[in-house]
Amino acid sequence: MRSPWLAGAIVAGLVFAACGDDDGGDADLPLVEEIEPAVEALEEELSDAPQYFEIRATPLFVTLWVSADQGHRAIPYVYAEGELADAGESQEAEGFTFASADALAFDADAVLDHVSDDLDSPLSQFSIVGTESGDPRFSVTAQSDRGGELDIQLDADGTPLEAVPAD
User: Fold this and answer.
1) Residue 81, Cβ neighbours under 10 Å: how many?
2) For residues 10 and 93, what is the distance between their CA atoms, to the nearest angstrom?
3) For labeling, which of 24, 116, 121, 126 is most exposed (least CB within 10 Å)?
4) How many domains does the chain have?
5) Residues 156, 107: contact at Cβ < 8 Å?
6) Are 136 and 103 in contact (CB under 8 A)?
7) 40-69 pLDDT per residue, tens
8) What is the pLDDT of residues 119-158, one digit of tens each?
9) Which among 130, 127, 45, 51 is positioned nearest to 87, based on CA atoms?
10) Is residue 122 one of the residues assigned to a domain?
11) Least confident range of 74-78, 85-89, 106-110
12) Alpha helices of 29-93 — where are they, by DSSP H?
């Protein structure tokens, strides 16, 4: 069941997260374990398995960007605290898409382990994006205490493949 107060809860969560102390625990990691329930909730809501442009997990919520209008538009859906919010406003889009079955081919329990163990930087988001081949690309964004961001591409088990400055 979707809740109209979900957007307010997300804003409140952002405020509380900004005020809380950082103990470096799992509470600061992107909610990769919530991606599968988010996909299941959306696909149940739509009664279909759509193509996705991107699925992004932050420490507070999961956003699913669904392809619409033959890939010319993207519709965002936010999943937080076990609930799927109403669809956001569609936006112009271009790029590659992927199926949920391919997107869920990662180990949610381990995909962030290598990076979180090796870096002393907060991980702000985990993303799954479409590629030209149709296979999804997994990545995590690490934030430097000096303000920069690093986009680290991962394979499905979390092994880092490449790291580049984030756009």
Assistant:
1) 12
2) 25
3) 24
4) 1
5) yes
6) yes
7) 999 999 998 999 999 999 999 999 999 999
8) 888 999 999 999 998 889 999 999 988 889 999 999 999 9
9) 45
10) yes
11) 106-110
12) 35-46
In a domain, 117, yes or no: yes
Answer yes or no: are the C-beta atoms of 147 and 65 closer than 8 Å.
no
57, 104 contact by CB (below 8 A): no
pLDDT at 22: 45
Residue-wise pLDDT for 19-48, tens only, equals: 334 444 566 899 999 999 999 999 999 998
Q: Which domain holds residue 158?
A: 6-19+29-165
pLDDT at residue 5 greater than cutoff 60:
no
Neighbours of 49 (CB within 10 A): 12
Whole-number Å distance between alpha carbons of 67 and 57: 18
> Looking at the domain assignment, is residue 150 inside a domain?
yes
pTM, rounded to two decimals: 0.82
Q: Give residue 37's region: left, alpha or beta (phi > 0; psi -120 to 50).
A: alpha
Domain annotation covers residue 24: no
Q: How far is CA 22 from CA 16, 28, 29, 74, 77, in A?
A: 12, 8, 11, 34, 28
